[in-house]
Structure formats: structure tokens, C-alpha cells
Amino acid sequence: MTSQNAIDALALENRRFNEIMRSFDGGIWWSSDATAQIDVDAICAQAAHIKIALDEITRLAKNIAE
Q1: Cα 44 to chain center, whole Å?
Q2: Which of 45, 26, 44, 46 lies closest to 36 in space, CA to CA?
């Protein structure tokens, strides 16, 4: 894998994540989490995974920049 492949992979996942976030529409039309069929705990758990991954990507990017 080349560094360009890695950057392309990150860009693709960024686009996917942005599409997911846009689909939530800020919850503006939902009267409750139950109506939206959202498992808040599951989403928060996945957000924690994303944070860990982003922290690691940030660390790697800083190492590359040095």
C-alpha cells in the first residue's frame, strides 16, 4: 500500500461519515429517540471507537510530519 492509497482510504471514509451525519438532520423531525429508532448507547460506543481511530491517525500524521 502506498501513502496515496492511505490518504484515499481516509478521504473515502470521511465522505461516508459526512453522509451519515447529514442523514441525521440534527434530529429536527424526531420527537424522541424511540421515534427515530436510534440506539443512543450504540452510537456513543461507536463514536468512542472513531475517537480512538482518529487519535491514532493524528499520532501517525504527526510522526510523518516530523
Answers
A1: 11
A2: 26
Whole-angstrom Cα distance, residue 11 to residue 56?
16
Number of residues written out for the chain: 66
- Nearest Cα to 24, choosing from 52, 49, 47? 47
Q: Give domain limits for the chain.
A: 3-65
Give yes or no for a contact between 30 and 36, defined as CB atoms under 8 angstroms apart: yes
19 half-sphere exposure, CB direction, 13 A CA radius = 6
Cβ(23)–Cβ(32) under 8 Å?
no
pLDDT in tens, 25-37: 776 777 776 767 7
Distance of CA 34 to the CA centre of its chain: 23
